[in-house]
Design brief:
By secondary structure, the chain is α+β, with helices and mostly antiparallel strands. It is 56% helix and 10% strand. A hairpin with a 6-residue loop joins strand 2 (42-50) and strand 3.
Length: 462
């Protein structure tokens, strides 16, 4: 009962209205909620005052009170030496009622103790509920203590869930009379209502906690799924690495069949030679010298790697062109026209192997096989063109294709194909699971799985 909601307020209003209706001499009622152990925070929930000469009740919390929200903790209102005694402390600690039928002798009237002013005639009744109903059989309960450090309620079957305070007309109340018995009897009804509200709040809180944990679990699973799918992306890199062997052998075969073609290796070697010969004119402590070392490294890496023409053009555009442009703008150590021409020839050479006209100059290999080799050697496998893996495998299996390590490449590509084809299915199933967890539609997911299983058993899927 940590939250005062509309249902709790409505319940308190009904209880006050019932008591005032039963007791003509009563003119005001207040209900305080007592929080869970060990804090036992007391908060005034609702007050109702009977208007003069009528049965109408004015509702609200008009008076200033220490128990207005956020209320007071147990340690602030319990009996303690040096502190004024409160009727609230008596009712909560002892689980007994307090009747002030003589305001002049009310030893627990705060107003009288502080200002020597008598308070109203009133009766305070603790609302008791079963301890077991709230806390079960738990032996981990932390009990509140009195000022001496002794736990209260440890030997009681009940806990105080609320306190009812009813004010009376002067001289209209006596200890133990019918009015106090009526209040005591009705307090049991309020206890049952508040226990029901407690269960409702506990269930609602548990539902919210479950929803929050479920959402957190979904986020964790989604994060792990994304990581897994990213890691599975290596499959495409592995497939394209195998295709790069196809490309290397094609370019090597083309060089032997058609001499005089320009390839990136010699041109990059020429550019690196130009760079090394003239770099001596740069200050070794200067920025241009460091750029020259970086450029030399990038050119050697491009010569060493077997990338697709698209990747090589990107390498050229992002890592080589900008550095040469800066050298040609800020120094006169190189012939600008010569370097520019070398870079243009290098760019064209990256596409040399893709020239299908060259396949007609090849001897010893059928033109259609040479053209197919030239086409497939430069593809880049992604999720959008998975079907081309089969074309590559068929090409490799051709008995006339002069390719190194044919059998090994064929086996690797077939294994990688099987793996990559499972990625969309894994992603689809994982997405369904996440959606079912996030939106609570597990039954729909199970139905989907059962439908897939029936398809498998009936041969509807391959």
């Amino acid at each position: 009962m940590d939250n005062i909601d509309e249902v709790l307020i409505s319940t308190c209003k009904t209880m006050i209205k019932t008591i005032l209706a039963c007791l003509d001499v009563a003119n005001k009622g207040t209900i305080y909620r007592v929080g869970l152990m060990p804090g036992l925070r007391v908060v005034r929930v609702m007050s109702g005052i009977r208007l003069a000469d009528s049965d109408e009740i004015e509702w609200g919390l008009p008076a200033v009170s220490d128990y207005n929200p956020p209320g007071k903790n147990w340690t602030d209102y319990r009996d303690q030496p040096g502190r004024v005694l409160e009727a609230m402390g008596w009712c909560v600690e002892r689980q007994l009622s307090w009747t002030a039928d003589n305001p002049q002798e009310d030893r627990r009237s705060v107003r009288k103790q502080l200002a020597d002013e008598p308070e109203d005639v009133y009766h305070m009744e603790p609302v008791l509920v079963s301890k077991k109903s709230l806390y079960g059989e738990s032996d981990q309960i932390v009990y509140p203590t009195d000022w001496s450090g002794n736990p209260i309620w440890q030997d009681s079957e009940y806990v105080v869930a609320a306190v009812i305070k009813i004010h009376f007309q002067p001289n209209a109340l006596k200890r133990g009379d019918r009015s106090t018995r009526v209040i005591r009897e009705l307090s049991q009804s309020l206890g049952a209502e508040m226990l029901s509200l407690y269960y409702r709040e506990t269930l609602n809180r548990a539902r919210k906690d479950f929803a929050r944990h479920r959402l957190q679990s979904c986020e964790i699973l989604a994060h792990e799924l994304r990581n897994t799918l990213v890691k599975l992306g290596f499959v495409f890199s592995a497939i394209n690495a195998q295709i790069s062997i196809l490309r290397e052998d094609w370019e090597h075969f083309l060089q032997t069949q058609v001499p005089g073609l320009e390839w990136k290796g010699p041109l990059l070697e020429e550019l690196s030679g130009q760079l090394s010969r003239n770099a001596e004119g740069l200050s070794q402590a200067g920025e241009l010298f460091m750029i020259g070392q970086e450029l030399l490294h990038e050119q050697r890496e491009l010569a060493r790697l077997s990338l697709s023409p698209y990747q090589e053009q990107e390498w050229l555009r992002n890592k080589i062109y900008p550095r040469w442009e800066r050298f040609l703008e800020e120094t006169s150590l190189w012939d600008k026209n010569e370097i520019t021409l070398l870079l243009e020839r290098l760019s064209r050479s990256l596409r040399t192997g893709m020239n299908l006209d060259l396949t007609r100059k090849i001897n010893g290999l059928r033109p259609e096989l040479a053209q197919k080799w030239a086409k497939l050697a430069y593809i880049q496998i992604t999720s959008s063109n998975l079907f081309q893996i089969d074309e590559v495998i068929q090409l490799i299996e051709h008995p006339e294709l002069p390719l190194r390590h044919k059998e090994q490449i064929r086996r690797v590509l077939k294994s990688l194909k099987s793996l990559v084809l499972t990625i969309p299915e894994v992603e689809e199933k994982a997405t369904k699971i996440l959606q079912s967890l996030r939106h609570g539609t597990w039954e729909d997911f199970q139905c989907s799985c059962e439908h897939d299983q029936l398809d498998l058993e009936s041969g509807g899927r391959t």
